[in-house]
C-alpha cells in the first residue's frame, strides 16, 4: 500500500472519530437538557405535558399524574385526547384534537376542558397549547400546560345562575348604593313600576314616587333596619303613569367585611289583585254608631241568609252571645265616656281576632254577638278561647288601665235551632249560664249538650270498636284534569258500615270521633290504608297519580302528625309527592300554629290542599304564607255557577288569585277554568275494586278513541 494512502485513511478515521465524539457530546447535552426540563416541569403546580407532533404523550409531570391518578407507564405514548383517565366524551376529544392540530401549525391556543378523574371528581382545566420548535424541518413538539380553574368556574357558574334568577324573577328587584341611588333593576321591577331601567339608573329611590319614598315609610324602614337588620311591609304607591297599586316590599342592607353598608336590596311584589279580591269578598252593612259594628237587625238578616245556605249545603254554623262582666261598675265609677271608649276597644279586639267572613255585632249596651259560618262545636270552642284570651289583655282607656272579661253563650246550627229566634234565645240562655257559673268563660246551650240521643250514645260506643272489627273502609272518588279527560288523582273518603245501622254518615260519626278522642287513631289508619292502596295500584301498572287524604282540625293540631305521615309513606314505600293532605279552613284559625305544622308536613315532600276554600277561616293575607299546592273551591259557590253571576265572579276571582299564587284549583262538577274537577257529575266514590274496574274501562275506551267525559 502506498504510504500516502495510509496517511489519508488515518486522517479520515480521525475525522470520523471526532464527529462521533461531537455527536455523542451533543446527545448527552440534549439528554441533560431534557432531564433538566423534565425536573423543572415536574416541580410545576400545574399539569404540564410534552407531546410529539402527532399529539402522543412523551412526558407528563407529577402534578398531572396526581390529578389523573395514573403512573407514567400507563399513559406514555398515548394521544393526549385519547387518555381514558381524562374522562372525555367524543365531542370533547374531537375539540381537543383540533386544538392540538392548530398548535402544531403554529397557533398558541387556550382551551377550556372539563374532565372527570378516575375517582369521580370533576375538574375544569384551562389548557395552554403551544409548539416547541425543533432543529431543521422537523415538526415541532407541543407543550401543554393545564391550570385547575374548577373553583373559579364554580364561582362563575354561580354568578351566572344568580344573574339569571335576578333577571327572570317574578318579583321586582332594585339594588341601590348606600346613598339610595339605583344601581340596577330587573325586568319585573320595570314591569311593576312602569319605568324603563335606563330611566332608573342613578336616580334616588325616594324621589321616584314609590311608596317606600314616603316620609312615614322611610322612617319605618330606617327604624327596622337599625333594630332588626331588615324591613318588610305593605305600601300603596303609584306607577310611572300615575295609576295606583299595592305592593309588598322588603329592604335588606348589604355590608362589607367591616360591617359598613355598601348597597340596599329592595324586593317588590304587586299584591293589588289579592287586595281587590279580599275587598270584593267582604260586604259592608249597617253598623252600630258607637262601634261601627253591624247592629242587631243586620245580624238577624245574616243569620237568616246563612240558615238558608247551611240548610241547602248541610253545613254547620255557630252563634255566640257575649256580655261584658262588671261593665256596669265601670260605667258607674268612671263615667259613660270611659265606658263608650271601652266598648270601642272591645269591638276592635273582636274584629282583630276573627275572620273577615265572620260577623261581629253589637246588640246594645255591653252585649255583643259573633256569627261563625262553617264552624262546628269544636271550631266555636276554639274561637271562644281565643276571644277570652285577647280580651283579658289589659288596655289603657282615657288614662285608666282596665282588664276585661266576658261571659259567652254558644248555640250551634242545626242542633240548637234552625232560625234566628231560636238560636239567639238559646245562645242568650247559654250566656247567662256562663255568667252564673263564674263569668270569664263560655257555655254551650245546655239542651244540646245534655240531651244527646240514644243513637249518638250507641254510635260513640260502637265507634270505639269499629277499627278492630274492620267496619271502617275507604271509598275513592276520581279527580280529573280540567278537560275531564285524564285521571290525575283520587280522594280517599272514610266510610263506616255498622252491622246494625248500616252506612253511617261521616257528618255524623266524624264529630263523634273528634269529641271522643278517637280521630287521631282513625286518621292514622286512613293514611296507612290510602297510601298502601295507591302503592298497590301503581305496582299493578296503574299510571302514577295522587291520593288525597282529609285531615280533621283535631288531627291537624296533633303534634305527632308529621311522624305519622312519614311512617305511613315509609311502610308503604310510596314517594311523598303522590300524597296530598286536604285541610279544612278551620285549621287556619291560629295562623302561626298552622304555618308551623304545614311547614313540617311540606318538608316531608307531601302536597297540601285547602278544602272548601271561600267560606272558612283563612285570610288572604296569610294564604300566601301557607305552603299549599291546591285550593278546593267550596261547592256552595260552584253549584249555581251557571245561573248565579255572583258565584261565577267569586269562582273566577279565586281561580285568578290562585294562579297568581302559583296554586292549582279544583272544583266540583262544572265547566270552569280550574286545573282539576271532581264530583258526582263525573263519578261517585267507590271502593278500591270498583275503581280498578272503572280505570280499566276508561283505558279500554281510550284505546278506542272514545273516552267518556262523564262516567256512568
List the defining traits of the structure above.
712 residues, Beta-Lactamase, Alpha-Beta Plaits, 5-stranded antiparallel sheet, 26 strands
Structural account:
This protein folds into four domains: 34-149, Beta-Lactamase (2-Layer Sandwich), CATH 3.30.450; 169-270, Beta-Lactamase (2-Layer Sandwich), CATH 3.30.450; 277-450, Alpha-Beta Plaits (2-Layer Sandwich); 471-689, EAL domain (TIM Barrel, Alpha-Beta Barrel), CATH 3.20.20. It has an eight-stranded mixed beta barrel with strand order 18-19-21-22-23-24-25-26, surrounded by four helices. Strands 2-1-5-4-3 form a five-stranded antiparallel beta sheet. A five-stranded antiparallel beta sheet has the order 7-6-10-9-8, sandwiched between helices. Helix 18 packs parallel to helix 20. Helix 14 links the parallel strand 16 (406-413) and strand 17. With 712 residues, the chain is an alpha+beta fold. Helices cover 44% and strands 24% of the residues. Mean pLDDT is 82; it is low at 448-453 and 706-712.
Which value, in Å, is the CA radius of gyration?
39 Å
Strand segment tally: 26
CATH topology type of the largest domain: TIM Barrel
Please, what is the average pLDDT? 82
Q: How many separate structural domains?
A: 4
CATH superfamily caption of the largest domain: EAL domain
What is the count of helical runs?
A: 25
Enumerate the spans where pLDDT stays under 50 for 5 or more consecutive residues. Answer: 448-453, 706-712
Amino acid at each position: 500500500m502506498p504510504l500516502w494512502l495510509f496517511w489519508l485513511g488515518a486522517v479520515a478515521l480521525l475525522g470520523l472519530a471526532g464527529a462521533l465524539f461531537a455527536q455523542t457530546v451533543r446527545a448527552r447535552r440534549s439528554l441533560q437538557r431534557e432531564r433538566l426540563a423534565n425536573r423543572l416541569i415536574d416541580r410545576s403546580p400545574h399539569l404540564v405535558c410534552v407531546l410529539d407532533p402527532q399529539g402522543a404523550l412523551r412526558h407528563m409531570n407529577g402534578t398531572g399524574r396526581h390529578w389523573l391518578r395514573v403512573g407514567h407507564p400507563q399513559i406514555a405514548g398515548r394521544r393526549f385526547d385519547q387518555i381514558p383517565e381524562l374522562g372525555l366524551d367524543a365531542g370533547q376529544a374531537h375539540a381537543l384534537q383540533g386544538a392540538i392540530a392548530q398548535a402544531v401549525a403554529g397557533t398558541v391556543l387556550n382551551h377550556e376542558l372539563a374532565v372527570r378523574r378516575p375517582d369521580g371528581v370533576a375538574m375544569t382545566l384551562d389548557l395552554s397549547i403551544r409548539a416547541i420548535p425543533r432543529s431543521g424541518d422537523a415538526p415541532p413538539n407541543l407543550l401543554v400546560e393545564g391550570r385547575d380553574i374548577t373553583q373559579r368556574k364554580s364561582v362563575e357558574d354561580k354568578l351566572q345562575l344568580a344573574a339569571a334568577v335576578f333577571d327572570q324573577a317574578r318579583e321586582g328587584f332594585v339594588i341601590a348604593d348606600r346613598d339610595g341611588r339605583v344601581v340596577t333593576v330587573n325586568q319585573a321591577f320595570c314591569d311593576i313600576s312602569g319605568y324603563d331601567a335606563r330611566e332608573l339608573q342613578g336616580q334616588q329611590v325616594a324621589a321616584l314616587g314609590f311608596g317606600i319614598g314616603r316620609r312615614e315609610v322611610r322612617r319605618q324602614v330606617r327604624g327596622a333596619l337599625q333594630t332588626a337588620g331588615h324591613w318588610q311591609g305593605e305600601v300603596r304607591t303609584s306607577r310611572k303613569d300615575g295609576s295606583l297599586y299595592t305592593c309588598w316590599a322588603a329592604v335588606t342592607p348589604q355590608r362589607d367585611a367591616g360591617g359598613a353598608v355598601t348597597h340596599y336590596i329592595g324586593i317588590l311584589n304587586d299584591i293589588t289583585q289579592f287586595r281587590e279580591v279580599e275587598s270584593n269578598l267582604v260586604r259592608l252593612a249597617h253598623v252600630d254608631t258607637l262601634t261601627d259594628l253591624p247592629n242587631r237587625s243586620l245580624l238577624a238578616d245574616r243569620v237568616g241568609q246563612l240558615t238558608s245556605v247551611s240548610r241547602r249545603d248541610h253545613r254547620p254554623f255557630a252563634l255566640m252571645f257575649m256580655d261584658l262582666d262588671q261593665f256596669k261598675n265601670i260605667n258607674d265609677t268612671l263615667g259613660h265616656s270611659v265606658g263608650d271608649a271601652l266598648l270601642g276597644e272591645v269591638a276592635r279586639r273582636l274584629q282583630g281576632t276573627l275572620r273577615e267572613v265572620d260577623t261581629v255585632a253589637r246588640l246594645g249596651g255591653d252585649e255583643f254577638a259573633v256569627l261563625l259560618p262553617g264552624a262546628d262545636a269544636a271550631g266555636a270552642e276554639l274561637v271562644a278561647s281565643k276571644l277570652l284570651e285577647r280580651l283579658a289583655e289589659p288596655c289603657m282607656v282615657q288614662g285608666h288601665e282596665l282588664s276585661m272579661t266576658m261571659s259567652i253563650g254558644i248555640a250551634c246550627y242545626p242542633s240548637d235551632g234552625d232560625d234566628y229566634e231560636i238560636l239567639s234565645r238559646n245562645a242568650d240562655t247559654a250566656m247567662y249560664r256562663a255568667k252564673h257559673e263564674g263569668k270569664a268563660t263560655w257555655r254551650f246551650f245546655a239542651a244540646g249538650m245534655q240531651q244527646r240521643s240514644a243513637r249518638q250514645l250507641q254510635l260513640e260506643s260502637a265507634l270505639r270498636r269499629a277499627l278492630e272489627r274492620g267496619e271502617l273502609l275507604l271509598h275513592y272518588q276520581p279527580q280529573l284534569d280540567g278537560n275531564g279527560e285524564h285521571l290525575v288523582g283520587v280522594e280517599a273518603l272514610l266510610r263506616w258500615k255498622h252491622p246494625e245501622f248500616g252506612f253511617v254518615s261521616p257528618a255524623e260519626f266524624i264529630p263523634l270521633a273528634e269529641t271522643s278522642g278517637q280521630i287521631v287513631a282513625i286518621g292514622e289508619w286512613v293514611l296507612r290504608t290510602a297510601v298502601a292502596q295507591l302503592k298497590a295500584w301503581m305496582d299493578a301498572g296503574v299510571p302514577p297519580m295522587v291520593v288525597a287524604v282529609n285531615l280533621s282540625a283535631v288531627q291537624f293540631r296533633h303534634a305527632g302528625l308529621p311522624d305519622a305521615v312519614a311512617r305511613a309513606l315509609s311502610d308503604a314505600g310510596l314517594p311523598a309527592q303522590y300524597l296530598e293532605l286536604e285541610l279544612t279552613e278551620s285549621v287556619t284559625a291560629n295562623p302561626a300554629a298552622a304555618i308551623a305544622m304545614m311547614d313540617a308536613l311540606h318538608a316531608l315532600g307531601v302536597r297540601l290542599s285547602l278544602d272548601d276554600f271561600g267560606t272558612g277561616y283563612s285570610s288572604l293575607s296569610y294564604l300566601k304564607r301557607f305552603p299549599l299546592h291546591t285550593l278546593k273551591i267550596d261547592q256552595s259557590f260552584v253549584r249555581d255557577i251557571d245561573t248565579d253571576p255572583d258565584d261565577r265572579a267569586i269562582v273566577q276571582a279565586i281561580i285568578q288569585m290562585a294562579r297568581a299564587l302559583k296554586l292549582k284549583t279544583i272544583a266540583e262538577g262544572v265547566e270552569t277554568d280550574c286545573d282539576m274537577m271532581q264530583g258526582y257529575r263525573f263519578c261517585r266514590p267507590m271502593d278500591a275494586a270498583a275503581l280498578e274496574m272503572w280505570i280499566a274501562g276508561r283505558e279500554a275506551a281510550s284505546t278506542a278513541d272514545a273516552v267518556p267525559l262523564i262516567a256512568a
